[in-house]
Write a structure and sequence with these properties.
2 domains; globular; two-stranded antiparallel ribbon; alpha/beta; 12 strands; 299 residues
């Protein structure tokens, strides 16, 4: 393991990366990470081939970055409100292989065990291209919680062991899938340590961050004493957004507080989003729906 880490650190040039990502335009952490990677490659003129799902298929090139957007078919099933799994996605295998032959990547980077992740594993082995896999979501936990909701009408003595078995089995399948990668990436140090222990392969930290230029107090134009908390993302039961229901007293000196949410699932799971000062949202009319990017700091 130490030998491989040394080899990774001894790269003498910027690697040519082929990024395989199921989600790109949607509102979720994986899509945001993919967009940031593409933007970073454009700013620094790094060679990147980004292949992702989308509604408008086509090819777009800007500087050193080439993006391939692939549309899903009618054989797709819904995973999230704005995300599907296409059982016929393998029809793109030859096209993606041609793109890889033309681009000549040093490494393939996959972000999940979805359609493109599966194709990424297959093509990396077929074309002898090193594979990097980043861990973004605990799919085994998501699946177990949804199964629990689905069979919740059954007696607890049946539900509990069934859900526990499904979560454990799902984790084993996930680790088997990520085991195909030479190196893994994880968002937190504990996950890095855990993946190295479970897979016996190097894992590196891929931390999350915030754009300090966009989300900066200098953009604020109001000074009414409100503490405003924002949540942008998939508003689903698994996210645990119900914590926002805590009463204002729990926030100590922050007696005047308001919270704003935006993202997929807000209408369906709106009951999870309760503002501390709901009258503020009624007055402004901004409790649900989308808002302008430039208004994030103002409001």
């Amino acid at each position: 393991m130490s030998e491989l880490r040394t080899q990774v650190h001894r790269l003498t040039r910027v690697p040519r990366v082929a990024l395989f990502c199921e989600t790109y335009h949607e509102i979720n952490g994986v899509a945001l990470t993919a967009r940031q990677l593409v933007a970073y490659a454009k700013r620094h003129d790094f060679p990147l081939l980004a292949i992702h799902g989308g509604k408008i298929p086509g090819k777009h090139e800007e500087g050193s970055v080439r993006q391939i957007e692939l549309k899903r078919s009618w054989l797709s099933v819904g995973i999230e409100r704005d995300l599907e799994f296409d059982f016929a996605f393998c029809r793109y295998c030859n096209r993606i292989r041609k793109e890889l032959l033309e681009f000549q990547p040093d490494v393939i980077h996959i972000t999940s065990p979805g359609e493109l992740g599966e194709l990424g594993v297959y093509l990396s082995r077929k074309m002898n291209i090193p594979l990097v896999a980043s861990w973004h979501t605990n799919f085994h936990q998501f699946a177990a919680r949804r199964l629990q909701k689905l069979i919740g009408f059954l007696p607890p003595k049946i539900v509990r062991p069934t859900v526990a078995w499904s979560q454990q089995r799902g984790l084993r399948i996930l680790l088997w899938f990520y085991g195909f990668a030479k190196v893994t990436l994880a968002p937190t140090p504990p996950q890095v340590v855990w993946l190295e222990k479970e897979l016996g392969k190097p894992s590196f930290l891929m931390p999350r961050g915030v754009d300090p230029e966009q989300f900066n107090p200098q953009h604020r134009t109001v000074s009414d004493g409100f503490l405003r908390l924002g949540f942008v993302g998939r508003v689903t039961p698994e996210k645990g957004v119900r914590v926002a229901e805590a009463p204002p007293e729990a926030w100590g000196v922050y007696r005047r507080a308001a919270r704003r949410s935006a993202g997929a699932g807000l209408r369906k799971y709106g009951f999870l989003c309760v503002s501390f000062e709901d009258r503020y949202f009624r007055k402004r009319g901004t409790r649900s729906g989308s808002f302008r990017r430039s208004s994030c700091s103002d409001e």
